[in-house]
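Quarterly update from the structural biology core.
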Amino acid sequence: MKVLAVDTSSVVATCAVVDEEKVLGEFTLNQDMTHSEKLIPMIKVVMDSLGLRPEDIDLFAAAVGPGSFTGLRIGLATIKGLAHVVDKPVLGISTLEALAFNIPWGDTIIPIMDARRDRVFTGIYRWENGILLNVLEPTIFEVDELLDFIDDNYEMVMFNGDGTNVFKERIMDRLLDKALFAPVSLNMSRASSVGELALNKWNTGERENYFELVPDYLRESQAQRELKKR
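Predicted structure, tokenized:
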């Protein structure tokens, strides 16, 4: 079963094709937010390099958030459009779960994404018998509040995600040797993680279609917040 997966929830744009045995191909750019210009060409390069057409894909997957409003819309619209054309199923994967899935070790994994205004998108995950479990559902924390919570409840945690670049010094000052940080290669979104998670979820019976797939922003957009002020 072949899965085409994308993640455009952050500054990183990434796409991959995976099956049950391996990552067939992956293309990742960590440069800027021009996903509308780069995502389709990236997908085409990967697909052409593998000699695949959209109809050869069995399942389409995308990170649904949290993350950039515009980036998420681009990724989801692309995957939904491709799935619609060939009438194939889709699955949405939490950006935070995919980040945690990058790290196949450690008792407690805490991906953090910069949510601006001294806040982070985060969740708490751990591995059990080869399965990644969600201990704390994706949410928004004030940074200091999150660090207090971790300090009170955990002996050692592994951080990854773009929030580590923004808040690393504060994390180290607060948690000292309780905090570990993922290697650079595991610190950003990877479409292969989205694809493998989608394949795992499909095999356990999860189902979605391209009409149901929507972003999970975890917060209102700036436009929505401004509208409520009027």
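DSSP finds seven helices and ten strands in the chain.
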